[in-house]
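Convert to structure. Protein one:
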Amino acid sequence: MSKNKYLFGLAGLAFGFIASFFWTQYYNSTQAGTTAAPQAPGMQGAQGGQPSMAAVQETIAKAKSNPKDFNAQLEAAKLYNQIGMVPETISYLEKAYEINPAESDKFQIPPFIAQYYFDQKKYEDAETWYRRAAALRPDEPELHVETAASLIYRQSPDPARAIEELQKALKINPADAHALGHMVDACILKKDARAAEESLARLKEAEPASARLSVYESLIADLKAGKPVSIPKE
């Protein structure tokens, strides 16, 4: 089963290029009619490069002095991204979300933040942001799947709540291999071998060439034999 990180079609791209995507979209939609849109981070040409210290200080000062200005927080996030300060970038994206969740959703900021926390193994924070994203886009199955993954991989897994999220995803797409794989994970964590086998059978139909099928078969066999099992990370 291939892992589909939910970055809305931007999986596998470097952070700067991901940021450049929503920045380009933002300025194209809000700054139409201006002489030139600011150049996006990670996409500078020959005249690009690192911003000056004065530009950084001015942008950050503007964001701090205008805490309700959505655009100012995004400007600050852009500058921090350009100088490689990712945690600070995320902080200002979070401020932008607090100001205007709907506008943040337009540029797919919540799942981007969620994925950052997921990659940092801060699964509780990842869950919070995936749930915020899912509240804005409830019909996106992958958001429910990633919420479930954040519940499965944490130090104290919560398979029951993970199953609830996976059921939401499978209601949207019953053949979602990503959701079915995590359903097997969750059922194994619950020590429910029968349910794990049922989900595995569905996964075999949805993705018969998955390399994880044999892994799941071994895990379920160990579970039925009373052996300790651990869920492998993707």
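Protein two, convert as well:
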Amino acid sequence: MTRATGEQFALLTDLYELTMAASYFEEGMHEEATFSLFIRKYPPGRSYFVAAGLAEAVAYLESLRFREEDLAYLESTRLFKREFLDFLKQVRFTGEVWALPEGSLFFKDEPILEVTGPIIEAQLAETFLINAINLQTLIATKAARSTVAAGHRRLVDFSLRRTQGTDAGLKVARASYLAGFVGTSNVLAGKLYGLPVFGTMAHSYITSFSSEIEAFRAFARAFPQNTVLLIDTYDTIAGARKAIQVGQEMAAQGQKLRGVRLDSGDMAALSIEVRRLLNEAGLDYVTIFASGGFDEFKIARTLAAGGCIDAFGVGTKMGVSADVPYFDIAYKLVRYGHRPVMKLSSGKVTYVDKKQIFRRYDDQGLMSGDSIGLRDEALAGAVPLLTPVMAQGRLLKPLPTLAASREYFLQEFAKLPIQYKRLEDPSEYPVAISPGLQALQAQVEERIRRQELE
């Protein structure tokens, strides 16, 4: 579940991947093919994407194989010939992958990764790769937007109980941390990915005691180094006054109340009043943590209204990317054998052949524009972004740790000018097509029109 391997998930694919593979096999088509994975267009309000999911994709490709029980199931469908099923026994991914490092910023039409290998191997990987890359890139992008809204304030993933299944809950914790969150409430994700974990109490904890202040005191006794009190079970301001009393009792014992948590009501107004009460009581060191329906939009509204909040628990709307629940992500054949290929469907034209992304920076070190070019091109003054990750079916070197990828994202995100980070009506980042790719694209399109449309 947490490390998706090809041995476990060879059948986690669409049927047409297998029927195409069977036909390739029948026709003796085993030449090298290159597929490009990219996002076709920006959803509303988006102007950039954060690459994530590469580790899961590589783990799958490295271990891709069909087990006996998989082949027995395929045989039971009566769709496939014995010769093809015998062939699948031997299938392993033997190709290469070029990809953006996790945490990279990229833009529409730019390849997140490109897979090259015998066409059956590369084709069979399509469904899983789209699934893995789409989810984590979707969440990392949403989480990055939340960090923009929050500024210097800390964000914690609170989404587990409402994500779309257990595996999604784990991947959301990972992707949000990659994109700048400081941790998660998800304990298993903390264990598996080495994430800091956060959490305090629910309203049920408060109501299980005979009084709110007794609940607060009990929690302070159990966790004197990590006392964060949920103060809105009955009345937020009354709860704040009781938290102050407990905080003063702790201070008398040489301890410190760490924080109070708001989970309902007018967060801006309540946080302003709670901050005033804490400061007047000499508890200016106590942080105010807020949760309850937050995403980048609610964070921005709350802070714009003067909210005095030090950290946010960001849950459901981030965990399911509520405003944009999917990306128009695609995995398309761009070369077969020695022949660059493309799709000409209206609104879905693809760029041919093996590609590279070239990025330019201005004198201040800020990103100023990209070009999509051919893999073997070199554009003066531009930095190539896609790097070789796998060759002959194996990793060329270990992928960066999640912590290193998070640091890489933070460095790169700081280089993206503010006009592209706006939550609404952002500017569109300039992405050009290189001269080499333009020329080859025109040649292939002319050939197709002459061959297929005349």
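The two ends are 50 Å apart (CA to CA). The first strand starts at residue 32 and ends at 39.
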